[in-house]
Amino acid sequence: MRNLDILFVHPNAAKEVDQGLSKGLSAIEPPIWAALLANHVRSKGYHNIAILDCEAEGLTAFESAKKIEDFNPKLVVFVVYGQQPSASAQNMLGVHNCLEILKDNNESRKVLITGLYPSAVSRKTMQDERADFVCQGEGPKTITALMQVGNLSDPTQLKNVPGLWYRDAGRICFTKTAPLITQEQMQTELPGMAWDLLPMDKYRTSNWHAMSNNNEAKPFASLYTSLGCPFRCSFCCINAPFGNNNVENSDYGRNKFRFWDPDYIINEFEAIHQMGIRNVKIADEMFVLKQDHFMKLCNKIIEREYDFNIWAYARVDTVKKSYLDTLKKAGVQWLALGIESGNGVVRKDVIKGRFTDVNIADLVKEIQDAGINVIGNYIFGLPEDNTDTMRETLELAKDLNCEFANFYCSMAYPGSKLYLDAIRDGMTLPETYTGYSQHSYDMRPLDTKHIDAAEVVRFRDAAFNEYYENPKYLDFIKQKFGEETHNRIVKMCQHKLKRKIIGD
Q1: Is the peptide bond before 219 cis (omega within 30 degrees of 0)?
Q2: Is residue 465 part of a domain?
Q3: Residue 24: what pLDDT?
Q4: Are 439 and 19 in contact (CB under 8 A)?
Q5: Do 132 and 115 have their domain in common?
Q6: pLDDT tens column, 150-167
Q7: Nearest to 457 by CA among 425, 417, 504, 402
């Protein structure tokens, strides 16, 4: 028994959620926020800490609870994010299953839940779970202040902890909103990731990221160079920890975009390089955005002559041809573009923009001509979608013929404007945590204004196979990546998802 001050726990819900996709098809990513929070508390003098990555270790709920007890921490912090920001809700299942066992064994064990989902629906999380505390907001200032409390069982000592939900004689209470870490505080308050506390040998990248050789999917690392996003797409929940997007706050506000100085964040890339890691995900919601930031960082990576295989996010209206050579030289081999819909009316309705000044086909070709692969991200079932507009989106995807494509159903993720709108309008929402997962059996997307959720799911799943079984695409992949990769794509299409909503 180690008697820790803090144990940060990344929950495991993969087996119950992804219908077998975690067996070689999906990534196992380092829990970035757990590692950031761990390094934050170390900078405040708390060194008796650890990270338990239940997903990477493949732990069941029972095994996770046993490990937590063995660590015997003063405070257990479940850090609830996902491989993509929108995946936080599904990981709450791992928290729930582990927490039930943990509290049954030791009711006095103090537990805090932090992350995207609990920030969005803090009161609901307190009502649904046996946690002692829920953090609304980023987490660092809340956790540090909570550790300074002498008696975590005394509600009178909790009133000055910012961003904290707790119970007082059975009554759920909230203190006050925690201040965001400012741009000036980024290096001091979030001084990088606690790489040494992570099981780095367990992580692997997505099957497409190692498209040319799937045997090289490991080792793998992911990190942020910035936090937040200045855009306000209504289907996105990224604002929840950073903005005013708690369900009880009707002011759906713009989150605060901040970034680490390139002169500082290059140290994280050096750490990755020293660990012998080549596959890197820049997890920023929007990496290709602020030119002074990402171009300066790319030039520093080039100067050091690293040989990374990087993938990063961009919008079609933030990528300029003049950036591409530098991005490529820095090791950016994949750019994920948020295209979302092939219909301008549908995009405008979700505040995505019309992209009227961007020829998407020309942009994709420019990126590919620069030697960078493209992932097209598409969403079916946005509020103005019907069968015809979804077909427009699919035909656009097939015409663009990107090296990879992600097809999503529109979800009312807690923390998104779509979620607030759904509650306001009395729309049907998922009844379970797994209902928010794109790949679960009981997934439940939104009805649109024109078609129901079942039709959206049918279209999405059929679209996936239509895209990846398209001879034009398969020939392209075989020519570019070889026979083995072509065969992996064919095998991937044989993995059929079952859906409760369509009667499977």
Answers
A1: yes
A2: yes
A3: 60
A4: yes
A5: yes
A6: 999 999 999 999 999 999
A7: 504
The tokens describing 52, both together, are 């338990």
| Positions in the chain short of pLDDT 50 | 250-254
Distance in angstroms (rounded) separating the CA atoms of residues 144 and 215: 41
Q: Are residues 219 and 284 in the same domain?
A: no
CATH of the domain at 417: 3.30.750.200
Beta-strand pair 373-380/332-340: parallel
- Report yes or no: 109 and 40 within 8 Å, Cβ to Cβ: no
Give the residue numbers spanning the domain of 14.
1-199+211-268
Number of Cβ within a 10 Å radius of residue 197? 18
Q: Are 240 and 292 in the same domain?
A: no
Look at residue 242 in the predicted model and tell me its pLDDT: 80
Q: Are 37 and 10 in contact (CB under 8 A)?
A: no
Task: List the CATH number of the domain containing 153.
Answer: 3.40.50.280
pTM over cut 0.85: yes
Q: DSSP E strands: which ranges in 45-157?
A: 49-53, 75-80, 111-115, 133-135
Q: How far apart are CA 119 and CA 136, in angstroms?
A: 4
Q: Are 402 and 364 in contact (CB under 8 A)?
A: yes
Q: List strands edge to edge, sheet with 111-115.
A: 49-53, 6-10, 75-80, 111-115, 133-135, 164-168, 171-174
Q: For residue 315, how many other CB atoms are within 10 A of its CB?
A: 21
pLDDT tens, residue by residue, 219-261: 999 999 999 888 888 888 887 888 656 666 544 444 578 999 9
108 half-sphere exposure, CB direction, 13 A CA radius: 5
CA 380 to CA 396: how far, in whole Å? 13
Q: What's the pLDDT at 22?
A: 61
Radius of gyration for the chain, computed over Cα atoms and rounded to the nearest angstrom: 22
Mark whether 255 and 290 lie in a shared domain.
Answer: no
3 CB-near residues (< 8 Å, 6+ apart): 48, 72, 73
